[in-house]
Amino acid sequence: MFPRTKGSAFLVLCLVISASGGSKAGSQPSDDAMPSLQTLKTTDYTRAPSDEHSEGMGYSALRDLVNACQAHSRGLTVLPNFREPVLTRGDTGIAVFRKVSPSVVLVLTANIKDNKVTDSALGTGVIIDPAGYVLTNWHVVEGYDGAIVFFKPTVGTEPAENSSYGVKLVAMDETVDLALLKIIKPPSGLTAVKFGELSSIQVAEDIHIIGHPHGNLWSYSTGVISQIRDQYDWKYTDGSKHLARVLQMQTAINPGNSGGPVLDNNSNMLGLVAMSEEGQNLNYAVAIDVIKTFVNSSLANRPRGAETPRQTVKGEVYVGHTKDGLPITKTVYSDLVSYGVRDQKGSPIELIAETKDGAILTGSKPNAFGGFAEWTFKPLQGETIFVKSSGIAPDLISARKSD
User: Fold this and answer.
1) How confident is the model at residue 120 (pLDDT cuts 50, 70, 90)?
2) How far apart are CA 393 and CA 403, in angstroms?
3) pLDDT single digits (tens) 206-255
4) Comparing C-alpha atoms, which of 14, 64, 34, 32 is closest to residue 348?
5) Residues 61, 63, 67: CA angle, nearest 5 degrees
6) Please, where are the H alpha helices in 127-262?
7) Whole-number Å distance between alpha carbons of 371 and 349
8) What is the pTM of this model?
């Protein structure tokens, strides 16, 4: 179990949204003609009427982008530690790892403490559908905004070569400690893990586990099924209570393994690692029949069409104009200030965001969904992060700018 801190708690942001038009209505100015951050801060504003429309992108959407970029930035400090494991458990273990490890992902949430990735910010997930559905634990993602996933590197671990993908929450069930995520724009060629059958599980059966214990990425461990426990109840240090059929296992489980698959000798998934009882060599995984029920229900009930936007924080709205006469909307929240500059037709052109710690997020190429197709995130220290988005949420996050 991971001790957790809410994702919003570690971020106190000051985001600045900027957009500018040229001297002619509808024309696109050059980057040099865009109003600077300092210009937007020093513009005079007056309080807008209570019904004045705020910026197109809401507070939650902006926070998700910053969270995703920060999680990716921190992930780049973890990935160079990865080395392909040397497997010594025999041909079966090697075959299982090689077949399933590309379907196991690293899940990073936005819980960053003291500028470091913590166990509570890192977990495991497994691809269960080629369309980009990822299964993990409820306790891995509960309480966080803007999780991302990394895939296992095929060759090398150069940070600039590694990209992460934004995910959205499809469903979660606190009682059975399961969550289903969807990669917003998944890469092609994903391979899903195959589900096994509860009826085939035998006590003393050999099992194989892949996960990221204490940040040791894509680690392999093995063990045996000790027992199948019906209606097993457990709780975590945050007080959350859980009840489900579980597999009791004798194997090595540590923080970071949560959400990893438990596999048989044929690479079929028998369960999902949930927790361990420290000092007792007792480890537990949610059983495959519980997983099947949760996944089938989640996919059957998933919303069709456009996503319902999350409710956002309401702020105080002010209005102003650039020297060229372009309207600016300034919205002040308790931990966020946004400046939205639009062209003379009312359409946004660019977004600039500055966090309290000095990082700058810039969005360009407005899209039809009220967001921006391209983003850059420049932390006070570290590499610049580049983001692609087909809507509001981040799709692909990378340390290397694509062509």
Assistant:
1) low
2) 21
3) 999 999 888 888 999 999 999 999 999 999 888 899 999 999 999 887 77
4) 34
5) 120
6) 138-141
7) 10
8) 0.84
